[in-house]
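User: Can you predict the 3D structure for this chain?
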Amino acid sequence: MTIADIKKNAQGKMDQSIAAFKQNLTKIRTGRANPALLDTIHVEYYGNHVPLSQVANVSLLDARTISVQPWEKGMGAKIEKAIRESELGLNPSNMGDLIRVPMPPMSEERRKEMTKVVRAEGEQSKIAIRNLRRDANDAIKKLVKDKEATEDEQKRSEAEIQKVTDKHVGDIDALVAAKEKDILEV
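Assistant: Here is the predicted structure, written as structure tokens:
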């Protein structure tokens, strides 16, 4: 493996960490309704647990209400039960062929708790990125030790990896700040 491969690999994994962090942020509740909030819910469908989006159409009715429209008649009760039993604190109401999921307003205390959750998620992502930096630097040091690269190349590469790391950490900080602003907005 060459230094270029190591840098490219580290960059790709850091990009994946950012994508995973963005995905996690969609699951954290703000005051508004968001269909992505229900992405983590799985429903029993003919003996298998499948994502809600594979058995129903999930969309917004208005800013505070998500609508879930099952594709099969008998799925309404199972979907309603799955949403109610999820850890999202939602209380759906079944209207026959449509399930309405109103988003309860968040108290100030709950909003502050959610910002702490966002910061913790951000910190976990930063740790993952720093670990990727360490792994890349270790791989480069091994190349130098095995005499496949020079110490000058090592220093240059470590500086480039640090720049990429700093960029990704900055991206995470920006995402955290935007999500906090979104949560605290009443």
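The beta strands are 42-45, 48-51, 56-62, 65-70, 93-94, 99-102. The mean pLDDT is 88.
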